[in-house]
Amino acid sequence: MVVVLKEQTPKISVRPEFQQAAAPQIKEKVFELNGIEVLYGGVSAVKDISMEIGHKEVTALIGPSGCGKSTLLRCLNRMNDLIPTAEVQGELLYHGEDLYGPNVDPVQVRKLIGMVFQKPNPFPKSIYDNVAFGPRVLGRKDGLDETVEKALRGAALWDEVKDRLKDNAFGLSGGQQQRLCIARCIAVEPDVILMDEPCSALDPISTGKIEDLMIELKEQYSIVIVTHNMQQAARVSDRTAFLMVELDAEEHNRWGRLVEYDATEKVFTNPSDKRTEDYVSGKVG
Which of 44, 122, 129, 182 has the highest Cβ tally under 10 A? Predict the structure, then answer.
């Protein structure tokens, strides 16, 4: 797709329905990051990030608070552009296209690469209008009913809301609101879905539904998720990237750096780096 221009770590328990084979070598890359560095006001937040993200896989970004997981995630759809002091250096390719090239329109990028945030953020509108919002902005007028139903079904929410589509979205539970936000995201038919700790504000039952949904959605979409939940990363992702915080010699500045990136099963059962082992086993946090 082309961007539109203008000690061995103890194995974390995995529910049988989530168990996956080790991720094979990436055959089709959706993103290629080469030496990515993000600075805010000239101060590095993440440095030297090089990795490839596979098409129609779930990729998890894990690591302690402040290691730059969300900063890195926001690079993938140019959300950092919205911060005046932010600067992204290095090369970031999306299906082989320079995502930060001079002829790339970041608004078009965000249509192809959607975002689901940490806390559910439905609009103060009806359930129907929330899902229809994106297609309407894109100028779609025909087939909205079918688009809304398809998106709600895709977010595993249709059966729960089909009889109250005109009700205010704020009347939904937290888990339902988050699935509504996912439906709103997929209604514009993106290529990639970015999720920034989408379950952190949800109860275990709602979290389980979102995790089930991620497994289903990767049949159609590439998904990158930031999570602090080690079990969640182990359950839903094909590959896991572990980032940690580094300090300069004077310990005045800190930034995030990629420590290890591999198939999720390997990261959690036989990591290559002792720092990864210490983190996923809970020795450090």
Answer: 182
